[in-house]
């Protein structure tokens, strides 16, 4: 949601304004801002979203006006000649340049170092968000403000309203939420720094806001804020089972987190059952506050529940349908399942059985952008409707080769169906015409706001000379090769890649962790399939004329990618925010070392011989 309204006003919702009426836009905008943590009304939230999206262009203009007005004393804007009188989008775009995180890094560093002058924003900055760093090999610092927290709650309410219309949950229902709040640290300038998820979970409005949308978490707060993510995951699983009949949906920020949680359950279920049966918490839980909270939750021995879970687990075939077996009243499984999370959907669907998989909404550490208002669509078909008042949005056209075209960016309502764009955002927290690096495809409109599909990150590109392969291209290649592996009843657990230019010519290296052992000829087939799976014209021609060497498949030991995750968690990433890096850059020395140290077999493609 946008900034708080200082003066609360009362309006009659039956007002029927004229389209384009500026007062109406103020009315609508003000109504959205006042919905902080009040009683949730599904129909009203949907109605307001309908009104807002019918007037998307006017809401965008008003949002930009509000942002510039609230930040008129920001030094960054004043340096470009922006003052309180600048309200026209065209004037704003003519004065303020497009930027990336590297351009803003010096400004944000001053904020981290304790400079309290209005550098990027005139609004208070109570914390700084730290991105996971998995996309670029280095974390980014991003201002986190109360306005971004309100955006988060607005987005959650909007998405929940549409989900609850399709999948109604009970008033006394709970959510099994695999959420983890890593520690905030205080910068040398005295500013709290944490991941975006940590800043959200630690915000005092978070719990009240989630309660208003009937999403009480099964786990005690002590589990969410546990300093040990392994103990927290164990307790999340135990908490969910203790409330198994009340669990209405299962959530993690990313599909990877859901798959990891239930893979962990496969290994630890007997220990969890023993805890329930004896009423005594496992000795693996050593954090005092977590142990105290979970002991209260156990409430003594429960042999009946323990036997129920034991019977359920032993009756499953290869853990198919594990989630509905554990949580019989669950309506759906929820998390980000698009983009780099697509490789985990197959395994998640295995655990979910017949339960619907609902894709979480579209956003980034910089802020939320779009809501899933068609929750019945499968993850493969999921689209997201841009919420017009979460920021001022522009879209840079991207060519078929993946390059940003020389054309200027277009506005929210000017995008064309079928075209791919890089997202540009201006928000309340001091980001102005900021290139997110995300490429999206416009697949339609919801009223007058675009519905988009996430395609890939622009900067995650495998390239040696004229070849350009994105994260999506890599993913499609892996999916194609994994079909050969599936014939042997083996799956790809996780994967990453690297461009090796230490040899002449350079070549692509793909790292695979697989679920079992198989013959070398099978893996050689997979290696050839990976090589042929990159259909970029520049890559294929370079392979044929041998200016790019044979693709190399390196199979790593089981647990290698967990070591990669542990590395990033050690750097301060949140377990709930973690995304496996799909392309490891040479500068990411430690991750490359982990991968290389755990290689058990290597294969070189013969596909172009």
UniProtKB/TrEMBL annotation:
<dbReference type="Pfam" id="PF03321">
    <property type="entry name" value="GH3"/>
</dbReference>
<dbReference type="InterPro" id="IPR004993">
    <property type="entry name" value="GH3"/>
</dbReference>
<protein>
    <recommendedName>
        <fullName>Jasmonic acid-amido synthetase JAR1-like</fullName>
    </recommendedName>
</protein>
<feature type="domain" description="GH3 C-terminal">
    <location>
        <begin position="473"/>
        <end position="586"/>
    </location>
</feature>
<dbReference type="Pfam" id="PF23571">
    <property type="entry name" value="GH3_M"/>
</dbReference>
<dbReference type="GO" id="GO:0005737">
    <property type="term" value="C:cytoplasm"/>
</dbReference>
<dbReference type="GO" id="GO:0016881">
    <property type="term" value="F:acid-amino acid ligase activity"/>
</dbReference>
<dbReference type="Pfam" id="PF23572">
    <property type="entry name" value="GH3_C"/>
</dbReference>
<dbReference type="InterPro" id="IPR055377">
    <property type="entry name" value="GH3_M"/>
</dbReference>
<dbReference type="InterPro" id="IPR055378">
    <property type="entry name" value="GH3_C"/>
</dbReference>
<feature type="domain" description="GH3 middle">
    <location>
        <begin position="385"/>
        <end position="457"/>
    </location>
</feature>
<comment type="similarity">
    <text>Belongs to the IAA-amido conjugating enzyme family.</text>
</comment>
<keyword id="KW-0436">Ligase</keyword>
């Amino acid at each position: 949601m946008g900034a708080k309204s200082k003066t609360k006003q009362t309006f009659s919702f039956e007002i029927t304004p004229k389209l384009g009426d500026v007062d109406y836009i103020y009315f609508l905008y003000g109504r959205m801002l006042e919905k902080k943590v009040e009683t949730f009304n599904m129909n009203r939230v949907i109605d307001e979203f309908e009104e807002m999206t019918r007037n998307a262009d006017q809401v965008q203009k008003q949002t930009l006006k509000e942002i510039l007005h609230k930040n008129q004393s920001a030094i960054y804007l004043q340096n470009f000649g922006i003052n309180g009188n600048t309200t026209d989008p065209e004037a704003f775009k003519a004065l303020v340049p497009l930027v990336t995180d590297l351009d803003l890094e010096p400004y944000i560093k001053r904020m981290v170092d304790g400079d309290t002058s209005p550098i990027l924003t005139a609004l208070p900055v109570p914390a700084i968000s730290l991105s996971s760093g998995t996309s670029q090999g280095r974390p980014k610092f991003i201002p986190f403000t109360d306005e971004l927290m309100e955006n988060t709650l607005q987005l959650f309410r909007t998405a929940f309203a549409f989900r609850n219309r399709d999948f109604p949950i009970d008033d006394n229902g709970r959510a099994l939420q695999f959420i983890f709040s890593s520690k905030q640290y205080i910068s040398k300038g005295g500013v709290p720094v944490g991941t975006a998820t940590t800043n959200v979970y630690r915000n005092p409005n978070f719990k009240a806001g989630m309660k208003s949308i009937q999403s009480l978490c099964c786990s005690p707060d002590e589990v969410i804020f546990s300093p040990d993510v392994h103990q927290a995951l164990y307790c999340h699983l135990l908490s969910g089972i203790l409330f198994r009949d009340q669990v209405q949906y299962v959530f993690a920020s990313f599909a990877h987190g859901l798959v990891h949680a239930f893979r962990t359950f496969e290994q630890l279920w007997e220990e969890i059952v023993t805890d329930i049966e004896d009423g005594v918490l496992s000795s693996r839980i050593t954090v005092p506050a977590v142990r105290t909270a979970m002991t209260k939750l156990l409430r003594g021995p429960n042999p009946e529940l323990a036997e129920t879970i034991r019977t359920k687990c032993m009756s499953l075939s290869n853990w198919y349908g594990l989630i509905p077996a554990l949580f019989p009243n669950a309506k759906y499984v929820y998390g980000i399942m698009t983009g780099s999370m697509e490789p985990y959907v197959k395994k998640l669907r295995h655990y979910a059985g017949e339960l619907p998989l609902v894709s979480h909404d579209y956003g980034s550490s910089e802020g939320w952008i779009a809501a899933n208002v068609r929750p019945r669509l499968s993850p493969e078909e999921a689209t997201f409707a841009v919420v017009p008042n979460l920021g001022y949005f522009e879209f840079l056209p991207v060519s078929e080769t993946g390059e940003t075209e020389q054309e200027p960016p277009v506005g929210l309502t000017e995008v064309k169906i079928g075209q791919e764009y890089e997202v540009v955002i201006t928000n309340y927290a001091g980001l102005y015409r900021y290139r997110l690096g995300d490429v999206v495809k416009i697949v339609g409109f919801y009223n007058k706001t675009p519905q988009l599909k996430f395609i890939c990150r622009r900067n995650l590109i495998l390239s040696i000379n004229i070849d350009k392969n994105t994260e999506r291209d890599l993913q499609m290649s892996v999916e194609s090769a994994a079909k050969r592996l599936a014939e042997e009843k083996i799956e790809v657990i996780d994967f990453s890649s690297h461009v090796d230019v230490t040899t002449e010519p350079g070549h692509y290296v793909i790292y695979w962790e697989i679920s079992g052992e198989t013959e070398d000829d099978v893996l050689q087939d997979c290696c050839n399939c990976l090589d042929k799976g990159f259909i970029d014209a520049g890559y294929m021609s370079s392979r044929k004329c041998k200016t790019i060497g044979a693709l190399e498949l390196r199979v790593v030991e089981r647990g290698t990618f967990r070591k990669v995750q542990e590395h990033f968690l050690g750097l301060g990433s949140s377990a709930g925010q973690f995304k496996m890096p799909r392309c490891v850059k040479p500068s990411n020395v430690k991750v490359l070392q982990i991968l290389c140290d755990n290689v058990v077999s290597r294969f070189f493609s013969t596909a172009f011989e």
